[in-house]
Amino acid sequence: MKNREKTKIGLINFTNCLPINYSLEQYKPCDTEFIYGTPAELNRLMSENKIDVAPISSYEYLRYKNLYTLIKSACISSDGECGSVILFSNADINSLNHCKIGVPIDSASSIALLKIILNEFGNETVNINFMEHKYEHTPQKYLNSGFDAVLFIGDNALKENTANKNQVLRYDIGKLWKQVTGYPAVFGTWAARTAWVNENQDEFLRINNLIIKAIETGLGVYFNEILNEASAGLKLDRQIIREYLGQKIQYKFTGKHEKSLDIFKKLNKLYNEKNCIL
Fold first, then answer.
1. Do the beta carbons of residue 83 and residue 171 sit within 8 Å?
2. How far apart are CA 224 and CA 230, in angstroms?
3. 177-200 average pLDDT score
4. Are 242 and 227 in contact (CB under 8 A)?
5. Are 131 and 102 a contacting pair, CB within 8 Å?
């Protein structure tokens, strides 16, 4: 390699990325360095040229496509219900005009998808007060303290969504995106910095193959170990994790996922021009 001794790969420290993360950790090449963070943190590190390859937010990729080369072998998505991008609400999804909605600091795609969905259900997001939160409270506490709805993602959403059910409305963003568009919701795309790819073509191909292998082994030979680790870490029943990682979350990038990204971009542009929301 020309510019640095090690390839820096970003990894999201959410359970939905564990099948790939766990596998990569098992056969980590000596010339590779892993850097962990939230989706928002990896977006920033990629933009600052501090990592070379990462699963960045789809929203980040679509905004700065000229800076990134898409790895068309992997993604983080759901073809319907995902279980870990949840809007908890006191009101129906089509009745959130002039409301106060909490959105997490660790997300980009999920917030953008939510805003598109809110518009698709008749709300005008220019009239909605979006306020960031850091998961200091449970969804119920947020909803009891002035918020009309609150978005949770990742492990925080997964745990709260499987907690004791109450009268709070729960909207799964993956399910709503499929309902609105007919396509899978793509929350994250694996990408590399194009400037790095141009100077490291062989390494880029090697990392691409490594990710393909990680998906296969993460959902195959390592799957039971991953279920045990996730179940213990989240204190959730093993069957919940099995359904979540094995059925709800998708990792292989297909033509349907590429089409979904196109729709994401078009709707994003449409509502941005209409309401100046994104």
1. no
2. 10
3. 97
4. yes
5. yes
Are 7-77+185-255 and 85-184+269-275 in the same CATH fold? yes
Question: What is the Cα–Cα distance from 80 to 233, expressed in whole angstroms?
Answer: 25
The two structure tokens encoding residue 215: 């998906």
pLDDT at 275: 59
- Statement: residue 69 has pLDDT above 60: yes
| Domain coordinates in residue numbering, the chain | 7-77+185-255, 85-184+269-275
For the stretch 20-58, pLDDT in tens is: 999 999 987 788 999 999 999 999 999 999 999 999 999
If one looks up domain 7-77+185-255 in CATH, what number appears?
Answer: 3.40.190.10
**What Rg, from alpha-carbon coordinates, does the chain have?**
19
Task: Return phi, psi of residue 70, to 5°.
Answer: -70, 135
Q: Which of 178, 67, 64, 54 has the alpha carbon at shortest distance from 113?
A: 178
| Separation CA 116–CA 272 (nearest Å) | 9
pLDDT score at 254: 97
**Under 8 Å between Cβ of 75 and 188:** yes
pLDDT at 277: 42
Residues 85-184+269-275, CATH architecture: 3-Layer(aba) Sandwich (3.40)
Query: CA 225 → CA 35, 36, 106, 229, 232, distances in Å?
Result: 22, 20, 27, 6, 11
Q: Span 107-123, mean pLDDT?
A: 95
Q: Are 229 and 155 in contact (CB under 8 A)?
A: no
